Amino acid sequence: MLSPTCVSTVTFIITADQDLRWMLSPTFVPTVTFIITADQDLRWMLSLTYVSTVTFIITADQYLRWMLSPTCVSTVTFIITADQDLRWMLSPTFVPTVTFIITADQDLRWMLSLTYVSTVTFIITADQDRRWMLSLTYVFPVTFIITADQDLRWMLSPTYVPTVTFIITADQDLRWMLSSTYVSTVTFIITADQGLRWMLSLTFVPTVTFIITADHDLRWMLTPTYVPTVTFIITADQDLRWMLSLTYVSTVTFIITADQDRRWMLSLTYVSPVTFIITADQDLRWMLSPTYVPTVTFIITADQDLRWMLSSTYVSTVTLIITADQGLRWMLSLTFVPTVTFIITADHDLRWMLTPTYVSTVTFIITADQDLRWMLSSTYVSTVTFIITADQGLRWMLSLTYVPTVTFIITADHDLRWMLTPTYVSTVTFIITADQDLRWMLSSTYVSTVTFIITADQGLRWMLSQTCVPTVTFIITADQDLRWMLSLTYVSTVTFIITADNTTVGLEV
Asked: What is the tens place of the pLDDT at every residue in 192-238?
């Protein structure tokens, strides 16, 4: 009958083989540790008050039964290497963290009722049959770290559990019957090499993440409903086929580093953003039909051929982040997409046959060093932005119709020539930090505003012929010679904001 008060640490190292019974009531003891190597019956009537940490290190080989009721204990840890039957009637209340580290090889059965436990972790390296009947209530995260090689079956019913994580390195068959209600996050970290089949029915789970490094066949029958976020991190080298039907999922992310053939048949409905992060080197083909998907993002670092047949309807944002070095050809037919963004760092030839219709915003962020040619025909595009840091010749043939805003952000040091014919473009902006020769043949009709923000230090020469442009603004902080051959007709306002220190000549207004 122990009653320690205000003791910082209490440790029990038990090697006894027979019956041990305590009536233990420590008060204000931060840490209590049990290191148990006994082989027989252990019974405690343990009432812990204001104990921050309780640890059980158990290497006993026979049956262990506890009747534990810890209250206001911060952390409870079970490190179990026992090989036989382990049964708990565990009822921790207001315990933030409960951890099970299990290396036992036989049957483990829990009747675990956790209330207001913030964290439950299972680290399982057992090789045989594992069956749990878990009923978790208001547990903040639940984590399963599984390295077992055989059959794992759960009847898992977490209720109001925000986070459930599975870290799986098992090589054989894994079957779950997982019914999660009001779980905010479910994560699968999978390094298994064989067939993995799930029958998941997730309801109102905000986040589902799959981190997959498996090399074999992965098939899901995945039906998440009202799941805002689904993430696939895939480093597998073989065939991946999904029959994925997502309804009212806000975010789907694919992080793909696989080197072989990838084919998806995706039907996404009402998914808020879809992201593809692709570092694969071979052929990638999608039959992607997102409907009412606001955002689709492609982050591509692949070096070979990428072909998409992308038919997006009512997609608000499409982003292509491209660092590929070879030929990239797309046949994109975007309808009613408000925003399309190209972030290009590729060094080779990039050709698009891009026909956006009713696309409000198109952005090109270009750091490529070689030749870039577009055949861009934009209709009813409200904003086109070019952010250019390329150092060599860039030639565009742009035919923009009814584009209200065109912006060029230029930091390139070499020759930039455009044959730019914007019609009914209300605003054209040039933000120039380039140090060398910049020549434009700019013929703007019905452009309301043209702005030049110039921080370049060398000779800047323009041949501008602008008609019916109400406002032209030059913001110049350059220190050297600035010469314009400026012929403005029906321009109501020309503004020069000059902080340059040298000669400014040739201004014709």
From this structure: 554 555 555 555 656 666 666 655 444 454 555 555 566 666 655 44
164: helix, strand or coil: strand
Instruction: Report, in this order, helix, strand and coil percent for the chain, each rounded to 5.
Output: 0, 60, 40
Give the pTM: 0.45
Does residue 478 register a pLDDT over 70?
no
DSSP assigned state of 501 = S
The encoded tokens of residue 307 equal 């072909």
Alpha-helix residue ranges (DSSP H) falling in 325-422: none
Q: What is the DSSP string of 296-338?
A: EEEEE---S-EEEEEEEES--EEEEEE---S-EEEEEEEES-S
Taking a C-beta distance cutoff of 8 angstroms, is the pair 439, 462 a contact? Answer: yes
CA distance 449 to 409: 16
**More confident of the two residues 92 and 34:** 34
Q: What CA–CA distance (Å, rounded) separates 439 from 451? A: 16
Q: Strand, coil or helix: what is 213?
A: coil
Average pLDDT over the chain reads 58
User: Could you give the CA distance from residue 419 to residue 442 in angstroms, rounded to a whole number?
Assistant: 7
Distance between CA atoms of 314 and 337, rounded to whole angstroms? 6
Percent of the chain with pLDDT over 70: 5
Write down the domain spans for the chain.
360-509
Token pair, residue 286, equals 């999608």
pLDDT band at residue 82 under the 50/70/90 scheme:
low
Please name the residues in contact with 444: beta carbons below 8 A apart, sequence gap of 6 or more.
420, 422, 425, 428, 450, 466, 467, 469
What residue type is assigned to position 401 of the chain?
A: T
pLDDT at residue number 223:
53
Q: Return the closest-CA partner of residue 185 out of 216, 223, 218, 140.
A: 140
Burial class (CB in 10 A: 0-12, 13-18, 19+), 422: buried
- Residue 416 predicted with pLDDT over 60: no
State residue 238's pLDDT score. Answer: 44
Number of C-alpha atoms within 13 angstroms, CB side, residue 410?
31
Cβ of 509: how many Cβ atoms within 10 Å?
10
402 Rama sector, left if φ>0, alpha if ψ -120 to 50, beta otherwise: left
Which three-class secondary structure string do you get for 23-73? EECCECCCEEEEEECCCCCEEEEECCECCCEEEEEECCCCCEEEEECCECC
Burial class (CB in 10 A: 0-12, 13-18, 19+), 492: exposed
Residues 227, 246: Cα–Cα separation, whole Å: 8
> Measured at the alpha carbon of residue 205, what is the angle toward residues 199 and 207, in degrees to the nearest 5?
100
